UniProtKB/TrEMBL annotation:
Keywords: Cytoplasm. Belongs to the phosphatase 2A regulatory subunit B56 family. GO terms for molecular function: protein phosphatase regulator activity. GO terms for biological process: signal transduction. It comes from Senna tora. It comes from the Eukaryota. The keyword Cytoplasm applies. Its main location: cytoplasm. This is Serine/threonine protein phosphatase 2A regulatory subunit. InterPro entries: ARM-like (IPR011989), ARM-type_fold (IPR016024), PP2A_B56 (IPR002554). SUPFAM superfamilies: ARM repeat. It is found in: Cytoplasm. The B regulatory subunit might modulate substrate selectivity and catalytic activity, and also might direct the localization of the catalytic enzyme to a particular subcellular compartment.
Length: 506
């Protein structure tokens, strides 16, 4: 009876051979029995390797590697047969998923050299056109790029208050760039591959993947941002389904920069990408694109660090006006809205951009904004900062702007003539004085009667201002005299009162 009961109990499983276990573990690292069993985010591998945690937004199922023959990743492509090369390609990609701590390169020097050589082999193989980007290969290369590239930048790398390199600040370079550069080149070759199946690749180069690429534009390393710029531009051109998502994501980055932090390292590179994107917009422009101009590009003039990306910003704005000249008045209104009050360097940039915009402005659009515009230009003509005043005077040397002024001189000259008169009387800089005299001569040749009328109006205004100033001076003198009389009377009353108080006390 007892034996019958024991026979029904489950039998104990035999212990596995430790050597089998060790072979299985090592197979995940070196043998690559399963092509996609590379290091995942947050996982640990051999204690001999120092691996940095990276963030990957892309999920690559391990089942994708089923049926792929394992090939030693250290084998050279030259030594592999034609049937082995594709599997070797995938094995090498999985081998390069490991990420090492590059802050101490001597610590893992042999492993780092081996990985770098493997990356170079992969790049040569793809560049030669021998690679076939099947679904397992696409999954493997995207996984490798995600493992190496996607990471969170430590806060200690935030240096300047503007969140970007300034003219006087040395850029910071990533110690892992020797590997990252090859990974970026490999990703670019993959995207540019002629026979790449875009519909298949879109399953892996998806929106989360693109979003993490955009996050990398905040890198402190200008070399990485430059590589990202090229990669994202190619993705935008090849994966048409991602275009609205990319535009929206870039808009959100810039909203966050302008209205919240004013800290981002990659605004110039993102604008450089969008300069070519805007030039490719179809006509008529969509409402989405007009909103991008008004809500993103125009507010980008506000931050103090605008000088870092102003050249790219101006190009984007000019491209919009080239596409639709009716946007010129909208752009000038935006410039006037964000015109700097106390920052002379920004004012110089605004004047340069204003000249480029005015060169593309039609008469109809110019007349919409000429009054507020030349009030601002008049203030710049009269600026005590000689560079601002000089730059504002040089606007009049532009033939197109001068032609616009000639045709609207009845409205414009009265707005700026007083600034020219006061410059001639009071400005401290000789170069500005010479430019002022040249403009006054030019205006006299344009319309002498109008100039005389403006001169007469300025003299009358000055006389009224002098009379008002004299009246204020006399009024203040009377108030001061009255106050002095009240004070003397009060002192005469207080002295006898104090004497009477003293006598009573005695």
């Amino acid at each position: 009876m007892f034996k019958q009961i024991l026979s029904k109990l489950p039998k104990k499983m035999p212990k596995s051979d430790p050597s089998d276990s060790s072979r299985s573990d090592s197979g995940n690292i070196t043998s690559f029995g399963n092509v996609f069993q590379c290091t995942n985010v947050g996982s640990t591998i051999s204690s001999k390797l120092s691996v940095v945690k990276r963030v990957s937004s892309v999920v690559f199922p391990a089942s994708m590697g089923a049926g792929v023959e394992a090939v030693d990743p250290h084998l050279s492509f030259k030594d592999a047969s034609n049937t082995q090369k594709q599997n070797l390609f995938i094995s090498k990609l999985n081998f390069c998923c490991r990420v090492y701590d590059m802050s101490d390169p001597d610590r893992n020097c042999p492993e780092l050299d081996l990985k770098r050589q493997t990356l170079l082999d992969l790049l040569d193989f793809v560049s030669s056109g021998s690679a076939k980007f099947t679904e397992p290969a696409i999954a493997a290369i995207c996984k490798m790029c995600a493992s190496n590239l996607f990471r969170v930048f430590p806060p200690k790398f935030r240096t300047s208050s503007t969140g970007s390199e300034t003219v006087d600040e040395e850029p910071m370079f990533d110690p892992a760039w020797s590997h990252l550069q090859i990974v970026y080149d490999l990703l670019l070759q993959f995207i540019n591959y002629n026979s790449l199946d875009v519909k298949l690749a879109k399953m892996y180069v998806d929106q989360p993947f693109v979003s993490r690429l955009l996050d990398l534009f905040d890198s402190e390393d200008p070399r990485e941002r430059d590589s990202l710029k090229t990669v994202l531009h190619r993705i935008y051109g090849k994966f048409m389904a991602h275009r609205p998502f990319i535009r929206k994501s870039v808009s959100n980055i810039m909203y966050h920069f302008v209205f919240e932090t004013e800290r981002h390292n990659g605004i110039a590179e993102l604008l450089e990408i969008f300069g070519s994107v805007i030039s490719g917009f179809a006509l008529p422009l969509k409402e989405e694109h007009r909103i991008f101009l008004w809500r993103v590009l125009i507010p980008l003039h506000k931050p103090k660090s605008v000088g870092i990306y102003h050249q790219q910003l101006t190009y984007c704005v000019v491209q919009f006006i080239y596409k639709d000249p009716k946007l010129a008045s909208t752009v000038i209104k935006g410039l006037l809205k964000y015109w700097p009050v106390t920052n002379s360097q920004k004012e110089l940039m605004f004047l340069s951009e204003l000249e480029e915009v005015l060169e593309m402005t039609s008469m109809v659009e110019f007349q919409k904004i000429m009054v507020p515009l030349f009030r601002r230009i008049g203030g710049c003509l009269n600026s005590s900062h000689y560079q601002v005043a000089e730059r504002a005077h040089l606007l009049w040397n532009n033939e197109h702007i001068l032609d616009l002024v000639k045709q609207n001189r009845q409205m414009i000259l009265p707005l700026v003539f007083s600034a020219l008169v006061h410059n001639a009387q009071n400005h401290w800089n000789q170069a500005v004085l010479n430019l002022t005299q040249n403009i006054r001569k030019m205006l006299s040749q344009m319309d002498e009667d109008l100039v005389l009328a403006c001169q007469h109006s300025v003299e009358e205004e000055d006389s009224r201002s002098s009379a008002a100033a004299e009246k204020r001076r006399i009024t203040w003198e009377r108030l001061e005299a009255a106050a002095a009389n009240v004070q003397s009377v009060a002192s005469d009353i207080l002295v006898p009162a104090k004497s009477a108080t003293c006598s009573v006390a005695c």
